[in-house]
Amino acid sequence: MTQELLKRGKDIKLAVFDVDGVLTDGRLYFLEDGSEFKSFSTLDGQGIKMLMAAGVQTAIISGRKTPAVERRAQNLGIPHLYQGREDKLVVLDELLGQLNLSYEQVAYLGDDLPDLPVIRRVGLGMAVANAASFVRQHAHGVTQARGGEGAAREFCELILRAQGRLDAALAAYL
């Protein structure tokens, strides 16, 4: 964790997550009946809950649309969910207008080319360890963990640490 990343994370008010390859391992599981399922990490979910408890708003923007993502967002209490939207920067513009926030107040975690315009525009744009090489090259930082394996938790803890709130967030469980 570099000083630059901590500086970028200091004023974050909104953390935005991609789903496939970030909150999941990126694999798509299709059943015989055409339905699909996804596997989410409880570590990531706890990180998102800690971030929200510290007052940072959260959102999901995904290019795909599945009931599993809606259910996961509801379970975690993520209030802003956008699915089936490849134009992630346009979606973010809409959300920033609603929340009266600037790009500098946003952190984004992604893994592939559709995430890159947002990663490059926000105050803290990060990629997961197994993101596409081109995306990793253009991100402000790269997590040590892979997507679906604690990368979102690492991202959340970085923001909390940058804002001086990580110790208090962890102490709540002692």
TrEMBL record:
Keyword Ribosomal protein: no
Top-rank lineage group of the source organism: Bacteria
Enzyme Commission no: 3.1.3.45
Residues at which Mg(2+) binds: D18, D111
Listed GO biological process terms: lipopolysaccharide biosynthetic process
Molecular functions per Gene Ontology: 3-deoxy-manno-octulosonate-8-phosphatase activity; metal ion binding; N-acylneuraminate cytidylyltransferase activity
Reactions catalysed: 3-deoxy-alpha-D-manno-2-octulosonate-8-phosphate + H2O = 3-deoxy-alpha-D-manno-oct-2-ulosonate + phosphate
Keywords: Hydrolase, Lipopolysaccharide biosynthesis, Magnesium, Metal-binding
Residues involved in substrate binding: D20
Enzyme class, spelled out: hydrolase
Pfam families per the UniProt record, alphabetical: Hydrolase_3
Cofactor(s) required, per the database record: Mg(2+)
UniProt cross-references to InterPro entries, sorted A to Z: CMP-NeuNAc_synthase (IPR050793), HAD-like_sf (IPR036412), HAD_sf (IPR023214), KdsC_fam (IPR010023)
Similarity-based family: Belongs to the KdsC family.
Subunit and interaction comment: Homotetramer.
Function field: Catalyzes the hydrolysis of 3-deoxy-D-manno-octulosonate 8-phosphate (KDO 8-P) to 3-deoxy-D-manno-octulosonate (KDO) and inorganic phosphate.
UniProt protein name: 3-deoxy-D-manno-octulosonate 8-phosphate phosphatase KdsC
Species: Pseudomonas helleri
